[in-house]
Design brief:
149 residues
Length: 149
């Protein structure tokens, strides 16, 4: 998750100071934290946003202490994201879709070969009363995606 720090390039900041400020913010992942908190607020829309952000900051500290991904999405949020990537409703997504979905939620460390990776699937569908054979690899199901996230 890379945030836009272009506001630092405005006339009120000098070049070296701007670079130092940007480096400081990036070193401490401040733009990522703010973006994650903002996304969580927009998705959850809590009655008490300050309390919600405080809870999520505590959760982030706990996750960081355990050296895990900082994913602040509910199971339902992750399932909705999966359905977005599986827009046709096949029940699985490709490895490239899995990678993109993980990047979308800000997962920095995720299993590069989840269950379903490299798995050959043969599917028969009916299209205009004709059977269609679909053969492919890398079929990651919703359950696998949610578990990995």
């Amino acid at each position: 998750m890379q945030s836009d720090l272009s506001f630092l390039k405005s006339k009120s900041y000098s070049g070296t100071k701007t670079d130092e400020a940007e480096a400081y913010l990036n070193t401490h992942r401040i733009p990522d934290i703010i973006l994650s908190l903002t996304q969580s607020l927009l998705v959850e829309r809590p009655a008490n946003p300050k309390q919600h952000m405080d809870k999520n900051l505590q959760l982030m500290r706990s996750i960081r202490a355990r050296n895990q991904n900082q994913v602040l999405f509910t199971r339902e949020n992750l399932q909705a994201l999966f359905r977005f990537f599986d827009h046709v409703g096949r029940g699985y997504i490709s490895m490239s879709q899995y990678d993109e979905a993980m990047k979308t939620i800000g997962a920095l460390k995720f299993n590069p070969k989840p269950s379903g990776y490299g798995k050959l699937i043969v599917t028969y569908l009916r299209f205009a009363s004709h059977p269609v054979l679909i053969v492919g690899l890398d079929h990651i199901t919703m359950e696998v995606f949610v578990e990995e996230a």
